[in-house]
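How a chain folds remains the central question behind the approach discussed here. This step matters because it turns folding into a mapping between discrete strings. The sequence in question and its structure tokens are set out directly beneath this paragraph.
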Amino acid sequence: MKILPLSITLLAVLLSACTVGPDYIQPETVDTATIRHQEGWQPMPAQSWAASGNWWLAFEDDTLTALVERSTQANQTLAQAEARFRAAEAQWRLARGGLSPEVGATVGGSRSGGSGDTGRSATEQYDARLQIGWAPDLWGRVRRGIEADQASLQASAADLAAARLAIQMAAAGAYVNLRALDRQQGILNETMVAYDRSATLTRNQYDAGIVSRADVIQAETQRQSLRTEMYDLQAARAREQNALAALLGIAPAELDLQEEGEGLPAIPALPQSLPAVLIARRPDVIAAERLVTAANAQIGVAQTAWLPDLTLDVWGGVQSGSFSGLFDAPARVWSLGPSLAQTLFDGGQRAATRDIAIARYDEQAAFYRQTVLDSLQELEDALATLQILAEKTEQQDALLQLALENERVITNRYRAGQVSFLEVATAQNITLSTRRVAVDIHAERLAATLQLAAIIGGGWDLDDPVIQSVSGPNH
């Protein structure tokens, strides 16, 4: 009989090497080896666009760099994501604690007695006890729980990276919009100078009796319309700057970016080909895959409910009739014994719990596959947009040259009294519109480039330690 507790303990240790439930296998997804709007995917990029995920350096804009780096310091949305990550880390530590025995200590005292004919006097009893309890992880329930929480922690880290990237992209996008508005304002200022010259020319023509009063009124109307439009740009710029301040986590009054008429960043030179693995390193793809791992581990946790639980309890202590002599007392007590518990009937609860775990795994696997599909769609959209906008830029440049030449010819004919000011105004408006569309196209190309950086997880450096730290051993 003395050998029985030792035998049970040895058996528990041996069985603790067992882990119930399916081992994780990453779900298969669509083939990412072929991209329509790019000729071939390479194992590594032809050139590095940005090192270690610092994608913003490719734009070679010091203000943009400062704003993007500042955006991750005080943004409250990012602070929420960081808090969720710390909670996930604590949950993982909590799960790991289930593998360790619990040690506790108690000290107590009691006084008892009687009255009446018994003549019983009051007695005192004090005791101190040290307890050790351990539930061996026979079937891997705790280990599966740790596996699930570790995967959830990795998913939370990826969510944190995704939140950081989204904030950086939002700050960069707001900055691009701000500089595009500045460039639009610069164009309007330059156009106003041209309109002033035209108004002066028209008045001189009118004073010389060459044109009618209607031409003078039309020239003044054109100038006034442009002045009014400038206010719309100023209002839009104020809103954009306020939005940027909110992303930086500061009050709008604390941010004052001076206008720059030529402030749009240049379009970065992109590699000729992209590695297909970049889709798999996107934070949202990593998070979705890690959640599949967590859901798979929960199936194992649910399956262990059919197996018995073993608990080993050991305690020892001392007893005395006085507290002062407690630890010198000769009376020592102890207990050692295992207990085995098994649920025999639960009305189908364990089966339902297992089915829930399997269904949630299927849901997460489908979500992961859909996330990869969505990523490929976004990548195709961004590459197609960049390709089309590059071609559109060439056509717009050609159109601008034609508009400028047309304006020059019409203005000369007006000076010669051959046409009315209406034709001059029309030519000038065409030039203004063409110049503004060119700015819009440039801003769209910058936005598409930002989108591409976001789609592939921020930068094209495959050795990015941040990505490696959140991807996990199975990814």
